[in-house]
Amino acid sequence: MLNRPIRVGVIGCGAQGNNHLRTIKELGAEAAVVSACCDLDPERLQNTKDMWPQARATDDVNEMLGPAELDLVIVATMPNTHMQMVLAALEAGADVLCEKPFMRNIEEATAVLDTAERLGRQVQLATNMRYMGTSQYLHNLVESGAVGDPVFAKVWGCHVNPPWWAPNYYLSSSAGGVLASTLVHALDLAIWVSGSPNPVSVSASMRRLFPGKRGPIASPEIRERFNTEDLLTGLVRFDNGVTCVLEGNWCDDRPPPHCFEMVTTKGKLNSDPFIVTVDEGGKVVDKTPELSESSGWGESIRNQDADVIRHLREGRPWSMQDRRQLLNLQKVIDGCYESARTEREVVF
Questions:
Q1: Preceding amide of 67 cis, omega within 30
Q2: CATH class of 6-126
Q3: Whole-model pTM over 0.90
Q4: pLDDT of the residue at 197
């Protein structure tokens, strides 16, 4: 057991970076402290300094990582910088928690994971929805065999308006629109709950409905720069027999935004609203449990960060995901974009 708090560096102090900064504060100084932070925006840096006065604040990543004192680096920048930031943190001797989407393509993802293995360091993708109480229950339920085998899933990631609080709509920074920025959350969760199978093939199509939809409420800058897909549909087949239908939509009108439904050989699972039904004697029986654990977005980030920090303090390797799972998720994302561009099915 490490007899000091984990020293954390945060790269990117925007919306998601601030979620991590607040969470670490809530965990307490005996568990972790933010020792350094990096952002190109002076106001964001000052806000972080107000929250963490002892942290070294800089707009230069190399300066932040230079002392090589950090145990954990959280990368919460846009995807076009993920590879650069993660590799720099690994070379500086830190383990890394990287926000979604992981990398821009499978080549970048493989290079990052190869470097981590070479250096004996760890990289985890911030799949915080896995840490929701409902998600944990559904994963364990499927793993137990109590509802049979998963066979079909519908997965969606939707917003009423495009998430333009960050440049998710701008291809050069986001590396993809509704799939890479929104649908990825529930996609990862559904794959994990279904047993983390390997993808076999994917077929997808994508459209841009903006500015025909939602254009009048966007700023002139957004209307000028918006160049990603805001509607994506897909079909993914996996090697355990599961078929998965995908929908990503930034002009939707139905909550909640990140969800899946899964049909199994003995029942059906809904992630949100959380419902579990089982076929008993030909009748549909509601088996939804009352859970004490909260399943909110903020709580899931807190649970994730607490788990990562606890493992580091106890000297145990991270266990929520592995290399194969990370590469499979990247492979599905890459395959969807390739299929949509070529109008052909992609076989892995």
A1: no
A2: alpha beta
A3: yes
A4: 98
